[in-house]
Amino acid sequence: MLQKFDPRNQNLKVWVKDGLYPREEAKVSVFDSSVQGGDAVWEGLRVYPEGIVCLDQHLNRLLASAKTLAFTDIPTKAEVCSAIDQTLKANGMNDDTHIRLTLTRGEKITSGMDPRLNQNGSCLIVLAEWKPLVYDNSSGIKVISSSQRRNAPQFLDSKIHHNNLLNNILAKIQANVAGKDAGLMLDERGFVAELNGSNLFVVKGEVIYTPFAHACLPGITRKTVMDLCGRHDIECIEADLSLSELYNADGVFATGTMGELTPVVEIDGRAIAKSNPLMQRVLALFKASIREYCQPLLD
Length: 299
Ligand SMILES: Cc1ncc(COP(=O)(O)O)c(C=O)c1O
Fold this sequence. Notes:
By secondary structure, this protein is of the alpha+beta class. The chain folds into two domains: 10-130, 2-Layer Sandwich (D-amino Acid Aminotransferase, Chain A, domain 1), CATH 3.30.470.10; 141-291, D-amino Acid Aminotransferase, Chain A, domain 2 (Alpha-Beta Barrel). It contains seven helices and 16 strands. The strands form two sheets. Strands 7, 8, 9, 10, 11, 12, 13, 14 and 15 form a nine-stranded mixed beta sheet that branches. It starts with 12 loop residues before the first strand and ends with a strand.
């Protein structure tokens, strides 16, 4: 499903490093490390009137990713929250909004890979857009398995939520060429990792399975689903899952901040039912509880 331009986003104000700029002036330098090496970390946040879904977990993941990549001058949680707060207020947003929160290693004194060339501190970008859920969660999505493998820790640790998304983008291109909605990526051993931009869950009988998080992003929506299952006595297990197990599942769904919970109705031409009662129960539980997971920006 291709997202469309939303005219409400024409006159956005975007936070870049130290203040708010109109959309057309919101830019980073050609010396910024994100331009030179995709050297940045990011989070996608969803805004409801009650607050931001799992805000603290997102901030923790952002700061942990920045620490792993040895960024310097990392903003504090309070500073990030203040920038988000000012951005949402400047745009009059408190619902139907998605924030792309990016922290780059910052500007370099001259082009080059060496992080010692970054002498101006990191650069925080808060891009808040009017963006309803990106998938039609009633009709579901169709996916194909991609020949592009998802990174595992022996190549690049999937626990780092970084901007080097090229293998996921290649998987998405394969899905586009096939006329499908997303690329299903396997890990380096051939087990299912995730879709190119969301995590996967599989229903078999009365049990729900999800791939171990060694080669997928340990998604925060994924964690919320596991938490909800625990709270409602639904067995949810991390496992190595093969494509054949997905083709023959009773239900499959994807999870992510952009689309929340989305049934997968076809994998490599094999139809997957979306009417499974256990899957529908989890989808309904998520919808009913998501606002409980919202946290206000400033206490
Ligand atoms: C590759 C990938 N997998 C899964 C997800 C879903 O993660 P979350 O639930 O934290 O939004 C994302 C979102 O950023 C992603 O980029």
